[in-house]
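FORM 7B - TANDEM STRUCTURE REPORT

SECTION 1: FIRST PROTEIN
SEQUENCE AND TOKENS:
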Amino acid sequence: MVDLSDFIAHSPNVKRGNIPAERRRRLNDALERLNSGLYGSDTGQISGGGNDIPTTGLVSYWPLDDLEDGTATDYVGRNAGTVNGSVSTVTGKFDNAAAFDGGYIEVGTGETFGLSEFTVSAWARAEDEDASGLRTILARQDPTGKSYEKRTFVLWFDDDSGFFGAGVISARTAETDRDLRTVTTSDSYIDSEWHHVSVTAVADGELTLYVDGTEQTTESIDGPLYTGSGKTWIGQSPSQVRPLSGAVDDVRIYDRALSGSEITTLYDTTSISK
């Protein structure tokens, strides 16, 4: 059984004796499901539609099912998100999802990204509208640096080409040593359908992009990763110039690079017990 008492006691969003009845009921249900097998302490797996979803190295998980009280709960870490602007709840890939129309979810400056490697995974649905240019699914921005150098990690959708893409900053030893590495798909995904997008990054290794469980492209990374100390946002860039027109569901951050088979498992999952 998983002991969550320490998490509850220290969570910024759960205060003992100060939880609305309905929210407390849902929390108790979630904790019961957690202790009944959602997180296996021995296997490091999450139950999901007959598949064992990897949890080893999972540091933040936002299902985005419930945005009640303007909060996006982090079911694993302590990086609860705050909803800002026009963000609504719609039918998602799993239960509900967050739909963005100029708004965003800010998940603060928690240490979610590994310094030597990490994985970002999410389900995204882009809408075919009049928007153009790069639209942010998830981004982390450093308060220092210039122009693109501030975006130490970004996962995006390009409304012009329909491509998914990602970028990461590496080899930051001085202000002039920031090196942006990017990967993009070669196919268009402007189809109003849900697509699973994952990115793995390894220092002195590779940046790899996956869509719907299939590896799309890789780019070499020279030197260490630089993830910065800025905030992480979902649905918008921290500079507030690249809002997503679409929806995002089931966002995960790992402090390790998942294998190709683990990425496929995430994509093949048909349901998730939370």
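SECTION 2: SECOND PROTEIN
SEQUENCE AND TOKENS:
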Amino acid sequence: MDAAAAAASSLADLHSRRMHALLEGLDISGTSGLEFGALHNPIMHKPTASVLYVDHVDTQALRAKYAADPNVDPGRIVAVDIVWNSGTLDSACNGRRFDYVVASHVIEHIPDLVGWLGQLKSVLRPSGTVRLIIPDRNYCFDYRRETSSAADAILAARDGIMMPGPRQILDFMLQYAPRDVGEAWRGQPGSDPLPTRQNYDWAIATAEDAVSNGAYHDVHCWVFTPLAFARLMRQLATYGLIGFACTRCTATAEGSLDFFVHLMATDDAGLIADSWNWAVAQHQPQPADLPRQDFHDRELVARLKAEISALRASTSWRVTEPLRRLVTRFR
């Protein structure tokens, strides 16, 4: 095998492992879902999957937006089924309900994190799942930024913002610094460009454009690591702001720049709280000779299975199409 073939094989293997981590336990037969921000590289493919593609503008506008972007092939951008940039997601979906939502490198762009998750839950069937791929700050151009706080998430939710706000724009633009993934994993220091007046003026002008003209400027509104994400969700769950339990929150795999999160829609506040406590524990440093909350894991598994069993026994289960199982990894 020559070098080119070996590289192609390695990339194919990496893609396969990533898709397994994202979609593990998701049975797409007889179910339907939404994919956000698919652009030219969708995760769920028609007609194999019954999926609708959601974006903030229609297909033509996306192709125009990315016409000069070297990382996007405008001709391969999927046809957008649902345009959602105002109002409720439920209204945009005409009241339809879905079994799953998939979003790769989307959540960090969402101005109102809490509101967005609430909108997703509103269109999911009971125990529906959300599958997320999220960039890890440590391995991308956000590495100089502080991880996101609950205060920022709460204020964004209070204001119900639909576009990146001035603080989000300024933090992104003033702290942006290129980061090579390989160098980051080898422990090499990243670039640390000196602040310039030119960059400041550009950032201020961009933020002013958003405020004065309502212009949409695409930035990373939120900054995470696996532990930071789990901690933020735990805090928001404690305040009753999150209607999802965590069924998986991976570490960032060596050599990659993102991590994977599986969520399950539920109204069980205790289950939500326990699941995020569990997620935090998976990423907190622990002495090598201590088990990683084995007892708690078993208890959480039992509660997740009990909720699913209760759902299966309910009237709504018998009259609706079968709901996908979200906790295959725990069985």
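SECTION 3: OBSERVATIONS ON SECOND PROTEIN
The longest strand covers residues 124-135.
Residues 289-295, 316-331 have pLDDT under 50 and may be disordered.

SECTION 4: SIGNATURE
Preparer initials: ____
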